[in-house]
Amino acid sequence: MSLERVLSAVRALLARELVERGLSVNETARLLGLTPAAVSMYLSGKRGGELVGVLASDERVMALVRSHAELFVDAAKRGARGPIDLTELAKVISNILAQKTPGVELEELIRERIRLEQETATRAMAYSYRMRNPLVRALFMQIATDSLRHAEILTMILDHLTGRLKADGLDISEEELEALAQEEASMRESIADLYKVGDPVLRALILSIELDEQKHFQLIKALQLAPRLPRGNPGPS
Q1: Mean per-residue pLDDT for 207-221?
Q2: Are 235 and 169 in contact (CB under 8 A)?
Q3: Could you tell me which residues are beta bridge partners of residue 170?
Q4: Over 90: is that where the pLDDT of 14 sits?
Q5: Which helix (H) or strand (E) holds 194?
Q6: Is the pLDDT score of 235 beyond 80?
Q7: How many domains does the chain have?
Q8: C-alpha distance across the termini of the chain, in Å
Q9: Exposure pattern of 158-192 as b/e (b: 16+ CB <10 Å)?
Q10: Cα separation values, 114 from 2, 95, 139, Å
Q11: For a 10 Å CB count at each end of the chain, is N or C smaller?
């Protein structure tokens, strides 16, 4: 299945979610890099194809779409205008669809994703070297380093699934995690004033920081659900 077809269906789902959350058709169009007419066609079901229904019936896909929609609405309220690149989200959803295909192994999906992350990192790094504007260069370097980190995390997941890496339990207290969560929440609130800058590149950099803070908060909350090692157990040496 082509990535462009998945992208079209993802745009349709996001358009609906964004409008349902209070954004106008014009605001949604700006965020998604579309014309208002295209958004209206997505909302009416005239664009996106049958794949929209397939994705809408998958809770894993819709959880991703809804979480991204919430982030985009929050970003729009803080002044972000878009367009937002949905390529990575479409790749993740493509992998979810592939898991439904008989004969496709999870390990192969992870290896393919590692390859894609490494390719993205290489491309973004090459772009950064070409940029004269140091702020734009910083944006591309962030994309490159994020993609490399994703590849590293996926490699660790693959090693864990194949038994090469042992990772049992969480050796940090609930109190320590909650303190981190509160710090991240505070930083998310304090970043709002930074959006007073007018330069779109500066705003993009600030948005990248804010999205990281939101991600950190969600990661910490997810960790709070993980099983912990017994007290006094130092964990693997």
Answers
A1: 86
A2: yes
A3: 228
A4: yes
A5: none
A6: no
A7: 3
A8: 45
A9: beeeeeeeeeeebeeeeeebeebbeebeebbeebe
A10: 19, 12, 21
A11: C
Instruction: Note whether 194 and 162 are same-domain residues.
Output: no
Domain, as residue range, for 128: 106-167
Token pair of 90, please? 């479409």
CA atoms of 103 and 87, how far apart (whole Å): 25
Based on the number of CB atoms within 10 Å of its own CB, is 65 exposed (0-12), middle (13-18) or buried (19 or more)? buried
**Judgement on whether residues 110 and 100 belong to the same structural domain of the protein:** no
3-state SS, 2-40, equals CHHHHHHHHHHHHHHHHHHCCCCHHHHHHHHCCCHHHHH
pLDDT in tens, 101-110: 544 467 778 8
DSSP state of 170: B
What are the b/e assignments for 197-232, b being 16+ CB within 10 Å? Answer: eeeeeebebbbeebeebbebbeebeeeeeeeeeeee
- Structure confidence by residue, pLDDT tens digits, 141-187: 999 999 999 999 999 998 888 788 887 778 888 889 889 888 888 88
Least Cα distance to 191 among 218, 210, 211 occurs for: 210
Per-residue pLDDT, 147: 93
- State pLDDT tens for residues 85-129: 888 888 888 888 776 654 446 777 888 889 899 999 999 999 998
